[in-house]
Amino acid sequence: MYLFRKQHPALSIGTTLIGLASFAAQAAMPGNASSSAADDPLLRYQWHVSNQGQAVIGDSRPVAGVDMDVDILHALNIRGKHVRIGVVDSGLEIRHEDLAANVIPNGSYNFMNGSNDPTPSGPGYDHGTQVAGIVAAVGWNGHGGRGIAPEASLAGFAFGEASSVTEAGIRYAWGDGPQSSVMDVFNFSWGNIGPFYQDFPLQDQQSWDALMQSTRSGRGAIYVKSAGNSFLCAVGTRKEMLSMLAATLRARTVSAAAWPIKTPSIICSARSQSQAWTRRANAPRILRLDRRYGFPDLAG
Fold first, then answer.
1. Is residue 107 part of a domain?
2. Does 123 or 159 have the greater pLDDT score?
3. Does residue 10 form part of some domain?
4. Which end of the chain has less Cβ packing within 10 Å, N or C?
5. Which residue spans within 20-135 are E strands per DSSP?
């Protein structure tokens, strides 16, 4: 994660202390993990979690050492325990073998059928499950991969498709519902695009502000929203949200493709995938900034 603002001294001190942790401690697994479950089989492909220059899915290897250093935090027992993360998305498969142990019982909501089961109705609505895995897949259980916060608690708020999204539903998912009101962090890996900034009446703005500030026992939850979502740009961000636009660093070579423009509403960027668009024949290629994987990393 790259912050555009000056780093607070406490962050520098914390980073230094973490860096002094012994390599033996960094490699340690939880005391309650059996040796047979020490390795998550897909972890070696998650170069953003731990990058030793190993072979990953692709035609070449990433540059060793370019990762999020979360393996060090995990070794220091900083794994998201007691933190509740709400994934507002198309759906979340709460019985998935690598998620179930972290799912809050009856803590989710499905806006399509009114139940507490956000499990997607079909393969076209599995995006939220992917996001939840990146954020908080269970670690050291011998299944799948490992989340950024492998001991965090998960809840899903499933809209299914765009036609199911209403203002009342968004308010419910953002803290107005009994399940969402207890969330500490909200992950929004979705968005839409419009030709102009929406003009919200002051009364509406104050209403949304009051809602977002009322969560987490009046302290306000952490709302993380992507500034882009599989397109060139987006308009309409809120001052309460940690907006993010993924910097497209190629997983194969880890060479910078592009960085987002520094603006007041875009606070940080993260590694993601690189793609390109062309407006017309013989025109310069237009780089697409895609937050597909970097954004859930930030929420974790």
1. yes
2. 159
3. no
4. N
5. 84-89, 109-110
